[in-house]
Amino acid sequence: MPEATTNASTPETVAAVDLGSNSFHMIVGKLDNKQLVIVDRLRDAVRLGGGLLPDKTLSADAWERALDSLSRMGQRLRALPHHAVRAVGTNTMRQIRDGGAFLKAAEDALGHPIEVIGGREEARLVYLGVAHGLAPGDETRLVVDIGGGSTEVILGEGLQPRERESLFMGCVSMTGRFFANSKISDEAMEKAVLAGRVELRPIRRMFHAGQWHSAVGSSGTIKAIERVVIANGWSDEGITKSSLKKLRRALVGAGDIDNVKLDGLSDDRSPVFAGGVAVLSAVFKALDIEQMQVSDLALREGLLYELVGHIHHIDIRDSTVQAVMHRFGVDKKQASRVETTARALLRQVAENWELDGAEHTLMLNWASRLHEIGLVISHNSFHKHGAYILANADLPGFTRQQQAVLAALVRAHRRRFVDAEFTRLPAHIGACAKRLAVLLRLSVLMHRGRGASHKPPMKIIASDADIRVEFPEEWLAEHPLTEAEIAREAEYLAAAGFTLQYA
Predict the structure, then answer these.
(1) Contact assessment for residue 129 and residue 297, using Cβ atoms and an 8 Å cutoff
(2) How many domains does the chain have?
């Protein structure tokens, strides 16, 4: 759980790092009178996706390239506090299966936590970045971002995305699939474009021309295509359907990736250029695009703008939680009662249990509000239903790891304490989440009667795995049902390695 900001530690310099499947990007900005000014950029063509082996581990070369790049970025960013830096991994990072070894090595090299985000969350951040570079307006826009391993397609108005999809195709993956032998034949290009159109088919109706007023492209692939079509005189501005067709003909005419010599095409972009052109061609054909403007802003700028929003206490995750509560018919009064008690308990143990980060408070708050969402499915095992929803739903603003923490808290809030829910998390996060779960369990227990009657102030003392809860004199004797439930709770917690005493 990354650090959150406080007024006392508002940074002047903020940074974002995008660990893409083709390139790693770093962008640094300064806050000048609450305005974001970009002061530094760095891009490395790491080609992480090209180093993903069949067993979903990284090749030694890709591992080395990635850590070299992150070490260079780390030299620039190590002096910044964690809450001033946001680093995310995208498609290839989502696929790596090595027990977290690469993620840990990457975080050590960068000197900051790295979050792995889902495809639709990536799409939301792309749109946020692009939208900040467009003229204000309420018209619907189509935004397309082609990465190394995925392509994001978004509809939105102003700064708000409306529809978001992430497709499993990108310049690296498409090149590896259809142009792996470096040959660019007419047949290979047609097959690549057709494969892209097949990938787009399920979302074609939602994003087709007529649903939007203008199309905008972002990412290195689309910017490279724009540079080439303009440099070669095929377009005066942006990318047109006809200029893209001429570009495909030029690539097929070259016959081999090594023979592609086009004005405006850089050497580091050339190896994956044919795959990127095939993806964009599929997008143009499937969505009936005549012309696309190109934005200089993308995912990393979206990260920065959202980071600035967090600094000024604007967190989209709050809105997401409210929307989920409404969608699943949460009893807001009951959720509020549980949250109030949970926060009171957290304040008493925060220092001893190392739960004094702002993000710990947020996670406990959100888990308190969402712990009953599974009731919409069934009262039986509703904590399991709620955990499944939180682990798999599209929750804008939340990383996959944050969703896993919320799911673990909700899964563990009642009945048997399932330790496995926390051992699946990174060790330092799992330990904190397990302690938060104890606080949530005690809070839910105190409000099991769902009444609005006043509950006495509970005093809680915690040290490592030892917990003591104290009530006003004679209160437990006057409430035997609560005493019986606490006795049973002590048994549940004992099975999870905690000792609960009460008086």
Answers:
(1) yes
(2) 3
